[in-house]
Amino acid sequence: MGVDQTEPEVPADAVGKRVSCGEERATVRYVGPVPPTAGLWLGIEWDHPDRGKHDGSHKGVQYFTCRHPNGGSFVRPTKVSFGVDYLTAVQQVYQINSNEVLSQASSKKVIWQSFKELSFEDLSSVLLTNSEVNGPGAEGEIRKTTPNVQFLDLSGTLLSSWEDVAAITQQLDQLEELLLSKTRLCLPSDLSAHCQAFCSLRVLALNSCDLTWPQILECAPMWPQLQGLCLGENNITELQRPDGVLQSLKSLELNSNPLVQDSVLSLAALPRLESLNLSCTGLSGLRFDDAAPGSQTAMFPALKVLNLDDNNISEWCVVDELAKLPSLVRLSCRRNRLVSSDGNPRTANQMLIAKLGQLVVLNGHQFPPEDRRGAELDYIKMFGEEWLKAGGGSQPSSQFTRQHPRYLTLIDKYGAPEEGELKKPEPFALKNQLLKITFVFPDDPERKPIEKKLPASMVVQKVKGLLYRLLKVPAADLKLTYTSLKVAGTEFDIDSDLKTLQFYSIEDGDQVLVRWS
Fold first, then answer.
1. 492 in any annotated domain
2. How far apart are CA 167 and CA 171, in angstroms?
3. The pLDDT value given to residue 467
4. 312 & 439 share domain
5. What share of the chain is helix, strand, coil (3-state, %, to 5)?
6. Are both 446 and 338 inside the same structural domain?
7. Domain of 402, in residue numbers
8. CA distance 5 to 25
């Protein structure tokens, strides 16, 4: 392969810089020759290692290293872009947008005039997502050109260091929200030099930045006023106590990180934390050993909102631990493995409500007081036999109290269950009962709903067979959920082909939502 005579100039400090190659992003790890071919090569490490071919070696020579064994490539400088400065990117993005507006509104004098009067000084939000910003540009020009920016999105750009970010933000005195997701930033050598650059910052997003928790703690002194921090999809595993940093934080998102379970309690050192997202982190439990069952923990005193979706929680004792949180009012716990004895998702939700006395919103749905009353009364009846066997009265066995720490509180609230209520109802033969069900198709709004009368004893597999005949979509591709008028705004999964409609407590008039891949 010959040398390109129009080869662009490569920056002298190219190693460590970020580049774009088509839609992909990479970091330069090597600049120089790669014999036996002539000319200059760039050794790059891709953000997405599946784009690479090797680990930085060629014909037995190691030119650079990659974290992934196939994350590297050699490319010619003509194949990459080192990007542009902030103001050039602003002009490119907003000039393109202005041309679009003017071409659409050229016949409308009022719109033309109002747009002509706009200037970059009027911008309170600047969105440069996936642009090729690589640095600040000429010194002081940002402060002159976009002085009123409060919201700045630099996600997916070519910034390569916190020094470059600080050189931009220190000129934006009103900046409160900064998005830097999908970037790769080298840690600064002198943190104290950049604290002023982020002194007004309240919200920071660093999703998919390949960061570890120690790196976050190392950078945290730069953000003294931070209240919201988004760290989804990084390499965060074991959490250490954030002593002396992030003390003003109110919202923290750690979703989609492979967290070490026991280390989550380290976050209790954040005294103002009100909202915590731990979804898809592999959690199976939390324990607050400083508090006995039924009492309140001193940890997480301000925590109101907790997201535990898509984890491995299967033990109800975990819910009893959550009941120790003094301020918890919103919980999302979808797609875990919490199952009631009857296997009904609605019963499991009722148990969550009954066990968590302060809860107001469950799985995104705010339930009315009558739902709480119904859930708590059902809970009393559901475990009434166990309560009697455990001694009943005000002093049941310690084992029962550990498993049902709110039970005595509920009896104080509603009174002990009557003996007749404790008897389990005889199963009713629903074999011949027909349910009127409406099938709707949320991903295909043009398709009209289909109303059918089906036996309550019909298994889901046969329901899918019916839908196959109606839709000509293979049964294996169908995903079903249902909604009930009794629980507005909540979708319940129908996740077993071998269970009946009766098992899922689908009732007359319910809707079944049908989706397919």
1. yes
2. 7
3. 92
4. no
5. 30, 20, 50
6. no
7. 284-425
8. 25
Among 343, 358, 370, residue whose Cα is nearest residue 486: 370
List the beta bridge partners of residue 40: none
d(CA 156, CA 184): 9
Q: How confident is residue 432, by pLDDT bands cut at 50, 70 and 90?
A: low
pTM, entire model: 0.77
| 349/415 same-domain check | yes
Quick one: tokens of 185? Answer: 């930033």
**Structure-token pair, residue 457:** 């004893």
SS3 32: strand
Q: Give me the pLDDT at residue 100, please.
A: 46
Neighbour tally for 392: CB within 10 Å: 15
Tell me: do 335 and 387 sit in the same domain. yes
Enumerate residues 6+ apart whose C-beta is below 8 A from 211: 231, 234, 235, 236
Provide the CATH number for the domain around residue 512.
Answer: 3.10.20.90
Does residue 499 sit within a domain?
Answer: yes
What per-residue confidence (pLDDT) applies to 121?
87
489 with 362: CB under 8 angstroms? no
pLDDT band at residue 341 using 50, 70 and 90 as cut-offs: confident
d(CA 353, CA 371): 9
CA atoms within 13 A on the CB side of 414: 20
Residue in 387, 414, 409 with CA at minimum distance from that of residue 399: 387
Last residue of a domain, one of 381, 396, 425: 425
Rounded-to-integer distance, Cα 295 and Cα 101, Å: 60
Give the total number of structural domains in the chain: 3
Q: Tell me whether residue 408 is in a domain.
A: yes
Residue 49's domain is classified under what CATH number? 2.30.30.190
Contact 309, 332 (CB under 8 A): yes
Over residues 62-88, the pLDDT tens digits come to 999 998 999 999 999 999 999 999 999
Rounded to whole angstroms, how far apart are CA atoms 66 and 55? 5
The answer to whether residue 364 sits within a structural domain is: yes
**Over residues 89-105, mean pLDDT:** 63
Residues 421 and 456 in one domain: no
Q: Which residues pair with 205 in a beta bridge?
A: 179, 230
Q: Tell me: do 421 and 448 sit in the same domain.
A: no
Tell which of 425, 446, 472 closes a domain: 425
CB-based contacts of 32, cutoff 8 Å, min separation 6: 40, 41, 63
Distances (CA, A) of 228 to 192, 225, 341, 419, 470: 21, 10, 39, 52, 48
Counting every residue written for the chain, the total comes to: 517
**Do 307 and 420 fall within a single domain?**
yes
One domain, residues 311 and 393: yes
